[in-house]
Design goal:
This protein is of the alpha+beta class. It has twelve helices and 13 strands. It has a three-stranded antiparallel beta sheet with strand order 3-2-7, with no helix packed on it. Strands 1-4 form a two-stranded antiparallel ribbon. The chain binds heme C (2 copies) and calcium ion (CA) (3 copies).
Amino acid sequence: MKKLTYLLFFCVLIACEKENNMNNDATEEFPGGATTYLNIFSGAFEQPSSNLSNAELAQHATGDVGFSANFITSPAINNPGLGPIFNHVSCVACHPKNGKSPQPLSGADLKGLLFRVSIPRADESEGPMPVPGLGGQFQQKAIVGTQSEGQVSITFTETSHTFADGTPYTLRKPNYTITSSTASIPANMMISPRIAQQVIGLGLIEAIKEQDILSQQDINDSNSDGISGKANRVFNPATNQYELGRFGWKANNASLLEQVAGALHQDIGITSFIFPTEASYGQSQYDGLADDPELDSQAVIDLTFYTQSLAVPKRRFFNDPAANKGKEIFFNIGCNKCHTQKYTTGTTGFGFVSNQTIYPYTDLLLHDMGNELADNRPDFLANGNEWRTPPLWGIGLTELVNGHTSFLHDGRARSILEAIMWHGGEAEAQKVQVSKLSKTERENLIKFVSSL
Ligand code: HEC
Ligand code: HEC
Ligand SMILES: [Ca+2]
Ligand SMILES: [Ca+2]
Ligand SMILES: [Ca+2]
């Protein structure tokens, strides 16, 4: 009898270990593999990968200048072409110190928040249908003498909740309203709020083998764990074909070149060889200047290289007992079912991101996160409830680098714990388990996530 109990206990342990797949290799202290940056300070997101050649370091430095450059109204000698309509004047204005934007508290200063807009179409997998007179993004700024597309207001609804141990907490939901617009707003227009993400480690994300992402899909939840990750498939104008989506909050961009050229085009109003026509073409704001592309192709490639070669900082609290207890909770609860711990990258055009063992904590797949987080706006294969699992590496440094702890797709969460408590849909079970943890267990879990 006693033997049987032991045996059963043993099996449960084995099953549990097999199920949660936790990896405890010492290499995890260097989550970006050989690219990892080893100092922790407020500039930790602005460092080139540690394994760049001198030529690569020089290109990184050139791209760095472009990332910080303020674009200005044409004609100008340096950085011309801003707008005529735009969201911000530089990359770094939205991605401060290459980190996440703080949450905006009013429509008067949206910081790194922008709004994607579209109207419904028969087959959403072809990508969002632009809104007549507004296009695919709402630009709330314009150069002197031009009208912006309009203004937005933000209000908040606060709700009260309690953990199982009786500790209260609140969640604050932002509501966005377009208060004025140069175009008439169609009744069926869909709006997706998106906040600027951190831009570290993206060359490594680009180098994850497509097969390693696709093999995690479980579209029909055939293993019945309530989680049904799905890859996005998006049109890439740089290659003129549909490809696996990796970047953006809905995995709506296939490559960093497309992402960067898209940011120049839509966010700043700069045309390039990928997007040679102004975002405002066909609208009253169009400038009609024959100066496109406004940025030469080498500058776009250097800027893209900058995002491909930014290091991931070293882990903190790596051998901290509380963080290690939190790691066990993370895996036992099943956070890793979406926040995949580890990959070995493939061989890419860049040696420095090839064949690296990395720990980004993402599956790069889309998940239904419930109605509370939904933007109700499809983006290629992502439906209105789905978001891409964001990488968690660097998350604990957000406070040090950016002086805030705003998380999730519109920055609504005011802490890592709030970000977890907003999880719903496919992650409802994990959220409920967190709500049942003791105070110490909750603190350990947060300590672990902050160590990433
Ligand atoms: C108006 C604010 C804003 C500006 C300006 C801006 N970005 Fe972004 N950036 C964002 C937002 C918002 C996202 C998320 C977009 C999405 O979900 O589609 C993003 C995403 C990205 C990503 C993908 C990150 C990831 O993890 O998927 C990269 C790379 C990036 N931006 C680079 C740039 C570069 C380079 C520039 C300058 C040319 C720039 N951004 C300018 C707001 C901005
Ligand atoms: C079903 C998949 C899934 C599971 C399970 C899951 N997450 Fe997430 N997580 C996501 C997605 C998707 C987002 C982005 C949601 C959004 O922005 O609206 C996210 C966002 C986050 C963020 C905010 C990241 C950022 O950069 O803004 C944190 C922190 C986080 N998750 C931690 C956890 C923890 C801890 C657990 C386990 C208790 C967990 N997640 C379980 C999919 C998941
Ligand atoms: Ca322009
Ligand atoms: Ca627009
Ligand atoms: Ca499943």
